[in-house]
């Protein structure tokens, strides 16, 4: 299965961790979380009250960011969850080359290929031709 390619694997390196622990009750909607070894974006969080066995539980519903599949997990609210280190870089589109690559404003990125989906490709080219903002389509 191709979605197996994005699992976190432990390797000997400089010691930097791909995740950090955070208590389950502090995780919120739209944040990233590692569920069952997959990096996911949380779309729903619900917390149950303390029950017969002592712990309140957090129920997470999330979407895998690599394959779009829904993932769920239930964790005691006082236990730790793995949270991935996430960095986001926004680029401004300044040019589209003849061979279908884009150019970024400050540091030229000539290895970023345009999408192959015809509908999305048409939207990007049309908005670029009209000199509209391309941060969000």
What does this entry look like structurally?
9% of the residues lie in helices and 34% in strands. It has two domains: 66 residues, Roll (SH3 type barrels); 38 residues, no CATH class. The radius of gyration is 20 Å and the shape is elongated. The longest helix has 12 residues. The two termini are 30 Å apart. With 137 residues, the chain is mostly beta strands.
Topology at a glance:
Elements: E1 19-23, E2 32-35, E3 38-47, E4 57-64, E5 70-76, E6 80-84, E7 93-96, E8 102-104, H1 118-129
Family: Belongs to the eIF-5A family.
Organism: Kalanchoe fedtschenkoi (Lavender scallops)
Domain Translation initiation factor 5A C-terminal: 85-136
Question: What is this entry, summarized?
Answer:
With 137 residues, the chain is mainly beta.
């Amino acid at each position: 299965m191709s979605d197996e390619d994005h699992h976190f694997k432990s390797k000997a390196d400089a010691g930097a961790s791909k995740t950090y622990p955070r208590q389950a009750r502090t995780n919120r909607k739209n944040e990233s979380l590692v569920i069952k070894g997959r990096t996911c974006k949380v779309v729903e969080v619900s917390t149950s009250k303390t029950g017969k066995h002592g712990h309140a539980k957090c129920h997470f519903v999330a979407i895998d960011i690599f394959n779009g599949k829904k993932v769920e997990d239930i964790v005691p609210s006082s236990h730790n969850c793995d949270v991935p280190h996430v960095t986001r870089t926004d680029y401004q589109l300044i040019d589209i080359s003849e061979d279908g690559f884009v150019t970024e404003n400050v540091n030229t990125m000539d290895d970023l290929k345009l999408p192959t989906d015809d509908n999305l490709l048409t939207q990007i080219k049309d908005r670029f031709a009209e000199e509209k903002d391309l941060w969000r389509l």
